[in-house]
Design brief:
The relative contact order is 0.12. Among the domains are: about 100 residues, Rossmann fold (3-Layer(aba) Sandwich), CATH 3.40.50; about 70 residues, ATP-grasp fold, A domain (Dna Ligase, domain 1, 2-Layer Sandwich); about 90 residues, 2-Layer Sandwich (D-amino Acid Aminotransferase, Chain A, domain 1). The strands form 5 sheets. The chain has a 4-stranded parallel β-sheet with strand order 3-2-1-4, sandwiched between helices. It has a 4-stranded antiparallel β-sheet with strand order 5-8-6-7, sandwiched between helices. It is an alpha+beta fold. It contains 11 helices and 19 strands. The radius of gyration is 21 Å and the shape is globular.
Length: about 425
């Protein structure tokens, strides 16, 4: 029996590589919503009953939208939520086609392409780095001679710091181009964007992440995360996120104002956003804005008490339901994305129980199964696992995360 106060079904679009399906389905259960899952491979759907799943083409957006429209003719939809980068555009396109609340597809597409994002904001008045585009087939030595330094090379469409490399001189530039070529050769991506690399001026400063929710273009800040570990390159594997931020009130206000301005320029209007930025003496510099919530299992670090988990808030907003609270349930929380120390086969993980016993640690989750290959950044896009903590202060949470990580030992058979 469906106890949802909403007429119609909510469709979650989830790639098979996503960590997030379980948390969203649990949110749907708590809400009593009529939820179905759309994914790009059938095996991830087999646990669900008939009508609760639909296999979709995520690589051909127009075909995927047509598949959603056919599904909706049999099972009317009240909302569509794209969970990861791979599904936000098709969610926006299908929502527009069905007359459901949505972001403008062109705006979502802009956020998903690093060069389009930079171009849109280039003359906005917001602090912005120098940048230019090169073809992945260009002569790298010539491009290196013409570049500025330090620079960061970025494939246009990859996420989770995959293929992102800082270079400080022409020799590093040339080596980075060859490395990115190799990464792209291993990926089945045939779009025009996959043939180019963004060359972007390196921005020094402390990096932070903002988790927000848009309602008719208005930004509500749900959390502002500090990233206490320096992200200076040559690769940019993220580790610790801590909230609330320890930045000054003025800095936090500047961050929110900058993100709000960028959202208006980009034309985003509805749903979750995840923004990354750096602060230095010249202001707030946007690194990226994504039309989705925070990735991996990091959302488990957020609990809003009566408002629920982050996924509860996203689904309530999508269905037009009231959100009773966005006040964090605990004074400070954090997550550590466990970095991959070296390439090889994961043979064993020890110290998990010792790590869980540390004061303020909530959980330790290893997300890569024993026996699987570990691939560090910049080639890889996964983490070994996640450590979650909560406490009275950001400092206590950070200390607990570092102590718990120190208890873990990874037996890796080198590749």
């Amino acid at each position: 029996m469906n106890d949802s106060p909403v007429n119609g079904r909510l469709l979650l679009l989830v790639p098979t590589t996503s960590y997030r399906i379980g948390d969203f389905l649990l949110a749907g259960e708590r809400l009593g919503a009529d939820v179905a899952v759309g994914s790009n491979q059938r095996q991830v759907l087999e646990q669900f009953s008939k009508g609760r799943t639909v296999t979709l083409d995520f690589k051909d957006a127009e075909r995927g939208v047509a598949q959603i429209e056919r599904y909706s003719s049999e099972y009317p939809l009240a909302a569509i939520v794209g969970v990861d980068d791979e599904t936000t555009l098709i969610a926006a396109m299908a929502s527009k086609a069905l007359g459901l609340p949505h972001n403008v597809p062109e705006s979502v597409e802009t956020t998903g392409n690093k060069h389009s994002f930079r171009t849109r904001l280039a003359n906005s008045g917001l602090p912005a780095p120098r940048f230019h585009l090169i073809s992945i087939d260009d002569n790298p030595e010539r491009a290196a001679r013409e570049s500025f330094y330090p620079a960061v090379l970025k494939p246009l469409t990859l996420s989770a710091s995959r293929g992102v490399i800082r270079v400080d001189d022409p020799a590093q530039f040339t080596a980075a181009v060859h490395r990115i070529r190799s990464i792209m050769d291993d990926i089945d991506v045939r779009s025009e964007a996959a043939k180019h690399i963004l060359v972007e001026e390196y921005i020094p400063g402390n990096e932070v992440a903002l988790e927000g929710l848009l309602n008719d273009g208005h930004l509500t800040v749900l959390a502002l995360f500090d990233k206490p570990d320096p992200l200076e390159g040559p690769y940019f594997e993220e580790t610790i996120y801590i909230t609330p931020s320890r930045l000054s009130t003025d800095d936090q206000a500047a961050i929110a104002a900058t993100v709000s301005s960028a959202i208006a320029i980009l034309g985003l209007r509805e749903g979750p956003i995840h923004a990354e930025m750096r602060l230095n003496d010249k202001g707030v510099w946007l690194i990226e804005i994504a039309a989705r919530s925070i990735g991996g299992l990091c959302s488990r670090a957020l609990d809003f008490g009566a408002g629920g988990r982050l996924e509860d808030i996203i689904l309530k907003h999508a269905l037009g339901l009231p959100i009773p609270s966005i006040v964090p349930d605990k004074p400070a929380t954090g997550v550590m994305m466990i970095p991959i120390p070296l390439a090889g086969v994961l043979c064993q993980v020890s110290g998990i129980e010792a790590a869980r016993e540390i004061e303020d640690i909530d959980d330790v989750t290893i997300s890569i199964p024993i026996g699987e290959m570990l691939i560090p950044v910049p080639e890889g896009n996964r983490y070994l696992g996640f450590i979650f903590a909560s406490g009275d202060t950001p400092e206590a949470v950070e200390a607990a995360l570092r102590m718990a990580h120190g208890k873990l030992n990874f037996d890796i058979e080198r590749d």
